[in-house]
Recover the amino acids of this structure.
């Protein structure tokens, strides 16, 4: 089971009311390479992967939910006190018509989240390579959002999340090495 | 409308820092289960987190529920603010 | 010199509609070069680690946007 903790993994601050940034950030909430997709991908793959790497998939999958909550916090704060006019000007008119200020699992283009974003092939190497690719794609998405954002506080949190993608990719690469059962796995330069 | 004092943010950040070390060491140990130095460091920070959690909860209420924290009277798990609100 | 950014020069046509970006860069973060993490790598303090997003200095690779002041030193 899971235990909720009343605490963000990393402090989230927002400098300015800027609903347009929320529109971009929602990509990491309900997009193909977003945090929801990541969490569900890893936690679902772990049932059919060798025991040696189940712990890693469980723990990274769990951490992704903490990241999902950070993104939700940013979107919530960026839109909380925005007027319908501001929502419309930010390109969130269609979202407002359907959801008002509610968060929704959709990408930056407003397309709802779908299970087709994730794969579970049952082949451990195929699944771990998908996971590595997913981390690199999420890292890239954070780069592009940081490039468009002029909110230093949001960027500080996004930088943290981008760095986490690097560490997760590192661990998934190590998981591949473990499954290869190479003896000289100490260092590969 | 009541707001949390500055100390809430300070204590919370201390907990976030220690918990982050524990997250990092957890993922590291998932792929390096024979690194005794890392295990010792992990156990050291487990103790550290216990201490900070206790201090935080005595001032600001339970961090976890389902029995992973004690309750105040009345039941204070529901009390605002939630993490995304502060 | 080893960097975590690489660059290339795309072909510039006289008929390109936008002002050409002479050089394009892309990210090659540290984990691509480290392999299986060796034990006892130098660490950040817990507060620095939280700010950095990693406990180990070797993996630290912050990304800054065009509107920000870059800080490549100790994470704060």
């Amino acid at each position: 089971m899971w235990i909720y903790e009343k605490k963000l993994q990393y402090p989230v601050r927002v400098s300015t009311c800027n609903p347009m940034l929320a529109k971009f950030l929602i990509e990491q909430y309900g997009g193909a390479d977003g945090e929801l997709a990541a969490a569900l991908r890893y936690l679902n793959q772990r049932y059919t992967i060798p025991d040696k790497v189940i712990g890693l998939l469980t723990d990274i999958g769990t951490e992704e939910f903490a990241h999902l909550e950070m993104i939700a916090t940013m979107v919530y704060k960026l839109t909380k006190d925005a007027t319908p006019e501001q929502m419309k000007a930010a390109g969130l008119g269609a979202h407002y018509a359907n959801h008002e200020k509610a968060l929704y699992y959709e990408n930056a283009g407003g397309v709802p989240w779908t299970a087709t974003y994730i794969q579970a092939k049952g082949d451990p190497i195929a699944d771990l390579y998908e996971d590595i690719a997913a981390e690199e794609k999420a890292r890239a998405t954070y780069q592009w959002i940081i490039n468009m954002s002029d909110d230093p506080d949001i960027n500080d949190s996004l930088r943290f999340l981008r760095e986490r993608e690097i560490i997760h990719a590192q661990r998934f690469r190590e998981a591949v090495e473990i499954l290869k059962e190479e003896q000289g796995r100490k260092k590969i330069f | 409308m009541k707001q949390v004092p500055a100390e809430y943010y300070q204590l919370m950040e201390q907990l976030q820092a220690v918990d982050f070390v524990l997250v990092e060491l957890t993922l590291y140990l998932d792929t390096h289960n024979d690194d005794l130095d890392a295990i010792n460091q992990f156990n050291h920070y487990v103790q550290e987190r216990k201490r900070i959690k206790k201090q935080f909860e005595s001032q600001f209420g339970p961090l976890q529920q389902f029995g992973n924290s004690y309750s105040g009277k009345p039941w204070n798990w529901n009390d605002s603010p939630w993490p995304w609100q502060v | 010199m080893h960097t975590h950014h690489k660059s290339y020069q795309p072909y510039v046509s006289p008929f390109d509609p936008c002002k050409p970006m002479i050089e394009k860069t892309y990210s090659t973060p540290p984990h691509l070069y480290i392999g299986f993490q060796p034990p006892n790598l130098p660490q950040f303090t817990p507060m620095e680690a939280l700010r950095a997003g990693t406990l180990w200095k070797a993996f630290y690779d912050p990304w800054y946007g065009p509107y920000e002041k870059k800080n490549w030193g100790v994470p704060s």
The domain at 19-180 of chain A is CATH 1.20.1260.10 (Ferritin).
